[in-house]
């Protein structure tokens, strides 16, 4: 393996890692600012100009806060839970195509860490592993509220991964590929999949809310019923890891939705911009456009949290099994019929 290739991937991994951490950290500030605006009050404004240093202050507080491990807990698993949750939320972005390849000297450098031809399956595998961190943490705490939150998270994840997978099947029927890069390339310009799969996108987005445990599907950490849910017994850095993993999952879900349905790094007039800026800076504009799409989805996640009430657990299950799964199956049938008709024309 070439040394240049290893250096390229190392630099790309480092950049994506830093972007992910920065977005997750400042998502906490954005959430509090948006909540303040929607509730007609001032958000954090003391730490730095406009509260810009608030995420750093919160991170330092979490890092230096006392770590409390319950006496009767399974200590190794108690530590493994948040570690696994944080790890799985970080590795999912490896198959996201962040932009077109850029030309540096005589080398063509890909802005995708791993061009896996089954990228969608990889993301589903990583997402399904994320719930293990919650389950392990909730069970190892030896607390009935933590255990109930972990059980809720597991059943919620199972219930909503089914319609999410079915919604992706319809998209795969239309694109004929599992590669995230190929799906992004097929949406060149404004040929976005949202125009061909609007119902599939709505189902996928609703399931993303459930998979990331965001309101109105935040039943695993429902403080009115379960104190703090699966992280009731956690404090300090471990508590921060669980919270950080939630925002990283939100970032990953937004990146996946932007890539699958909204063209990823593609935008109108892309060829003209690339011809004006050249093969080095043109693709960076596409990367910036993808980040803007991700930020728009993150804002939507936050807007919904502060405007929509939480579901009851029976409503959550009914929506997943009785509404979303039939809709996803109907979407597959409709997509198959439309594809067959167009193939015969």
TrEMBL record:
Q: Name one GO molecular function term.
A: quinone binding
Localization, per the record, is: Cell membrane; Membrane
The record's EC number reads: 7.1.1.-
Which principal EC class is assigned to this enzyme? translocase
Going by the UniProt record, its keywords in alphabetical order are:
Cell membrane, Membrane, NAD, Quinone, Translocase, Transmembrane, Transmembrane helix, Ubiquinone
Q: Which PROSITE patterns match?
A: COMPLEX1_ND1_1, COMPLEX1_ND1_2
Catalysed reaction(s) here are: a quinone + NADH + 5 H(+)(in) = a quinol + NAD(+) + 4 H(+)(out)
* Segments crossing the lipid bilayer: 6-29, 77-99, 119-141, 162-180, 192-210, 247-268, 280-303, 323-342
List the signal peptide residues.
none
UniProt topology in membrane: Multi-pass membrane protein
Q: Please give the superkingdom of this protein's source.
A: Bacteria
Supply the InterPro entries for this chain: NADH_UbQ_OxRdtase_su1/FPO (IPR001694), NADH_UbQ_OxRdtase_su1_CS (IPR018086)
Q: How does it assemble?
A: NDH-1 is composed of 14 different subunits. Subunits NuoA, H, J, K, L, M, N constitute the membrane sector of the complex.
Q: Which NCBIfam families match?
A: PRK06076.1-2
Which family does the similarity line name? Answer: Belongs to the complex I subunit 1 family.
Protein's name in the database:
NADH-quinone oxidoreductase subunit H
Q: Which organism is it from?
A: Daejeonella rubra
């Amino acid at each position: 393996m070439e040394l240049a290739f290893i250096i390229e991937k190392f630099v790309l991994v480092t950049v994506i890692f830093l972007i992910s951490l920065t977005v997750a950290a400042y998502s906490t500030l954005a959430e509090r600012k948006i909540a303040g605006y929607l509730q007609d009050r001032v958000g954090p404004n003391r730490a730095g100009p406009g509260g810009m240093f608030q995420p750093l202050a919160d991170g330092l507080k979490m890092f230096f806060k006392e770590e409390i491990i319950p006496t009767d807990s399974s200590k190794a698993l108690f530590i493994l839970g948040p570690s696994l949750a944080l790890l799985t939320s970080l590795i999912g972005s490896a198959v996201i195509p962040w932009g077109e390849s850029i030309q540096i000297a005589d080398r063509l450098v890909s802005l995708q860490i791993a061009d896996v031809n089954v990228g969608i399956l990889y993301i589903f595998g990583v997402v399904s592993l994320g719930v293990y961190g919650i389950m392990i943490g909730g069970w190892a705490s030896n607390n009935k509220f933590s255990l109930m939150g972990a059980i809720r998270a597991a059943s919620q994840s199972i219930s909503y991964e089914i319609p999410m997978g079915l919604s992706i099947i319809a998209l795969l029927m239309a694109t004929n590929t599992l590669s995230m890069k190929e799906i992004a390339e097929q949406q060149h310009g404004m040929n976005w999949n949202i125009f061909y799969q609007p119902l599939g996108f709505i189902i996928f987005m609703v399931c993303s809310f459930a998979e990331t445990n965001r309101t109105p599907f935040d039943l695993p950490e429902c403080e009115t019923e379960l104190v703090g849910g699966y992280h009731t017994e956690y404090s300090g850095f471990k508590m921060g890891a669980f919270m950080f993993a939630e925002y990283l999952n939100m970032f990953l879900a937004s990146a996946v939705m932007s890539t699958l349905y909204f063209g990823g790094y593609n935008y109108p007039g892309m060829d003209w911009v690339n011809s004006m800026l050249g093969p080095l800076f043109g693709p960076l504009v596409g990367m910036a456009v993808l980040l803007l799409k991700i930020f728009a989805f993150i804002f939507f996640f936050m807007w919904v949290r502060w405007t929509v009430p939480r579901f009851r657990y029976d409503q959550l299950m009914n929506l997943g099994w009785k509404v979303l799964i039939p809709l996803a199956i109907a979407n597959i049938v409709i997509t198959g019929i439309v594809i067959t008709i167009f193939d015969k024309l």
